[in-house]
Design a protein that fits this description.
Number of strands: 16
Shape: globular
Number of helices: 8
Strand content: 15-25%
Strand order of the largest sheet: 3-4-7-8-9-10-15-16
Largest sheet: 8 strands, parallel, barrel
Helix content: 25-40%
CATH superfamily: Aldolase class I
Order of helices and strands: EEEEEEHEHEHEHEEEEEHEHEHH
Number of domains: 1
Radius of gyration: 19 Å
Amino acid sequence: MEENKTTPNLVVDLCGLSLKNPVIAASGTFGFGEEIEPFYDPSILGGFCTKGLTRRPRPGNSGIRLQETRAGLMNSIGLQNPGIEAFVRDILPRIRRFGTAIIANVGGETMEDYVAACYEVSKSSVDMVELNISCPNVKHGGMAFGIDPDVAAKVVRSVKRSCRKPLMVKLSPNAPDIVAVARACEKAGADALSLINTISGLAIDVHARRPVFANVTAGLSGPAIKPIALRMTRDVSKAVSIPVVGMGGIETGEDAAAFIMAGAAAIQVGTAGLVRPDTCQRIIAELLEFMSREDIGSLSEIRGII
């Protein structure tokens, strides 16, 4: 007679926030949650990151915004969003009904933008703020805030002073030394880190003899970047003492388990959810099946073992 096994425990503590499971829908791929309702109930998720929000509304980039590659997706959306004020006033009250953690992803072009936007959204009922420091610093030639450890630390320190919710900082893989940036953000007051954001790439229309995207370069995500994301998740989680949320090419429950083994407290799923809208739901089920099959009672048993 087969022995009855206890259902694995998927609960995760992220900066004092209790998540029912480690699966979080990534920013930019889930909208504000309402878009996914025809496919499954968003309340099953551990949480979700909102579409990137800025201090003022943005129309986004012109021209082509998405292009598939053989093992991923390139995007140049340009942070199209309704702005913090409209989000807090019109959208947030509706999506609180989902009963899962809402993480507000925030971007900006100047230090002042970041500070003001994070302060305003943190006064609302969101559960956490995810600071996207991959945005271009328009006052310094367009280089992303997250490339240089000193600049990243300055942004985090400034935002942290007035942010009323736990602050998670989203790191760019395009930094020469992502571990140095991670350590600088932790020292500056970040409560958690998320990584990786998209990898800078180029697509060329050989018939038109010009770049596919109006901004020339674009961000690559999807299965192609998973080995890089896993390596960076492990490197950063070994170097800091705050929680790390891993992402990059996750498509299955075993992918999620790999990131947990690399040190991630939780994971985010992005591109795969665009390809197949029910991906997050499936990953939760597959992770449970994997843990049951491998006789793993809780994620703490495998977290950071690599």
